[in-house]
Design a protein that fits this description.
Blueprint: E1 10-12, H1 19-22, E2 46-47, H2 50-57, E3 64-70, H3 74-85, E4 88-93, E5 98-103, E6 106-112, H4 118-122, E7 133-135, E8 140-142, H5 147-153, E9 155-156, H6 161-166, H7 169-181, E10 184-185, H8 187-196, H9 205-216, H10 221-230, H11 243-262, H12 264-268, H13 286-294, H14 300-309, H15 314-334, H16 340-350, H17 354-363, H18 368-379, H19 394-400, H20 407-421, H21 428-439
Parallel strand pairs: 3-6, 9-10
Antiparallel strand pairs: 1-8, 2-3, 4-5, 5-6, 7-8
Helix pairs in contact: 7-9, 7-10, 9-10, 10-11, 11-13, 11-17, 13-15, 13-17, 14-15, 15-16, 15-17, 17-18, 20-21
Length: 448
């Protein structure tokens, strides 16, 4: 049985300005899109949060993320549905009775209603547009806080200052959601966020990182990143962030658009990432790595400490730090030292981070013709400058040249790699002949 408050007004979707989008059979509000039957859902359950908001806006998602509120037995409801479909099941919060069912293309959360009514629960949420509930059995929308009106106005408005203070991550999430929805933040909400901003220091680094990554991952996040900086929301986590760095983010966005025009095949790589599994809710791309490198210290040691503070994975840390390290060899090329050896040094230094470095270089004013040759080399997997590879192995040197094992083997192989990049050798036999000469020569010989 539903526990609706008498003051909670229900509106049928056919009376709503969002009816066309919401009543679509492909809408998340349609049980036909769900991975489980409506008959398994208690009559008292309501769909709430971002999924309702997005459905009313006509926004589509490849992956369903549903949130249901039930007055009681939330964990039991989730467990029963998971068991029925042999789906994944996990209790997220035993104290507050929140559980998750994981399907192949959907995640469904069930939470115990907070307070003695649905309206009371909705009043505890962050923003009005996220406090709209939908009752799938009757196809009615419940909107006690004017969220639908704010959707029409495209405004993100807080419900109460205390709600933001209860979970300070909501202070930063406001900017991320405004960017995601292309909404404005209303002025009282901005003012309150500014006052409460120091509370963000109490939030776990991983949660802050997720919101920042989202803002950095798409061009539309930059204006909201700038707004968050202007509102002093980022001061606790990025105390040295400057107006110059914010402007660099704008420049990276513009450079990405230029790169799409100049070299679409290379620009497409910006959406990719190193071969590392990305946890749900995190954003990893070379585009984001490029922008992340712009808001960190240019000093490698300090930047590494900043990345560690945000608890980035070691792989992502190394990728971003390579962008910073690559700036010096790239500038040497820009200043005229564009030898194959210098190009080799650049690619050896940055590896796949060259994708992000090229974007940063374009944003910083490097002419595209300068980058074009480097890009072409990078896109050619057989290019010995951009993708150096050994023509011979250490075993070859020991067996065929009669050299003893030791550190000198590694040094010789490194020199052979450079010689290959410079075009001095091109085949294994040439490499062995060249190395035979080097092996007879002291390592500190002038011609080396």
């Amino acid at each position: 049985m539903s526990t609706r408050s008498p003051s909670l007004q229900a509106v049928s979707l056919d009376q709503s300005p969002f009816a066309a989008a919401a009543l679509s059979v492909s809408s998340v509000l349609s049980p036909q899109t769900w991975p489980f039957e409506l008959s398994l859902l208690p009559e008292s359950a309501h769909l709430v949060g971002g999924s309702v908001r997005d459905a009313l806006l006509g926004r589509k998602a490849d992956y369903l993320d549903l949130d249901f509120v039930v007055p009681s037995h939330a964990v039991e409801t989730a467990r029963a549905i998971a068991r029925h479909y042999d789906a994944g099941f996990v209790v997220l919060d035993p104290h507050n009775q929140i559980a998750r069912v994981v399907f192949e293309h959907a995640t469904v959360d069930f939470a115990q209603q907070v307070g003695d009514s649905l309206e009371s629960d909705l009043h505890r949420r962050d923003f009005t547009v996220n406090a709209i509930a939908y009752h799938p059995h009757t196809e009615q929308v419940f909107d006690p806080l004017g969220g639908c009106a704010d959707l029409e106005r495209r405004v993100l408005r807080m419900i109460a200052a205390d709600n933001l203070a209860d979970d300070p991550l909501r202070l930063l999430r406001a900017y991320r959601q405004a960017a995601q929805l292309n909404f404005m933040l209303d002025e009282p909400t901005r003012s309150t966020i500014h006052e409460l901003a120091p509370l963000l220091g109490k939030v776990a680094a991983e949660r802050v990182r997720g919101e920042l990554d989202s803002l950095l991952s798409k061009p539309e996040g930059t204006p909201l990143m700038k707004l968050a900086w202007a509102d002093d929301v980022l001061g606790t986590w990025l105390p040295n962030l400057s107006a110059v760095q914010i402007q660099q983010l704008v420049a990276v966005d513009a450079a990405a658009a230029q790169l799409q025009e100049y070299h679409p095949a290379f620009a497409a790589l910006l959406k990719g990432w190193i071969k590392e599994q990305t946890p749900p809710g995190f954003h990893r791309s070379w585009f984001k790595a490029a922008k992340l490198s712009r808001i960190l210290s240019p000093n490698g040691a300090i930047a590494e400490a900043e990345l560690t503070h945000f608890k980035y994975s070691r792989a992502e840390q190394q990728a971003v730090l390579a962008i910073l390290r690559g700036w010096e060899p790239l500038q040497a090329i820009a200043q005229g030292n564009d030898s194959r050896r210098q190009q080799y040094v650049l690619f050896k230094t940055v590896g796949n981070s060259f994708i992000a470095l090229a974007l940063v270089a374009l944003a910083e004013g490097s002419p595209f013709p300068l980058l074009a040759e480097l890009i072409d080399r990078f896109l050619d997997p057989a290019d010995p400058v951009a993708h150096p590879h050994a023509l011979v192995s250490g075993r070859d040197l020991i067996q065929q040249l009669g050299l003893r094992p030791g550190p000198h083997i590694g040094r010789l192989l490194s020199e052979a790699e450079v010689a290959h990049a410079e075009g001095k050798i091109t085949t294994p036999s040439e490499a062995l002949e060249w190395l035979a000469l080097q092996a007879d020569m002291p390592l500190d010989h002038p011609s080396r």
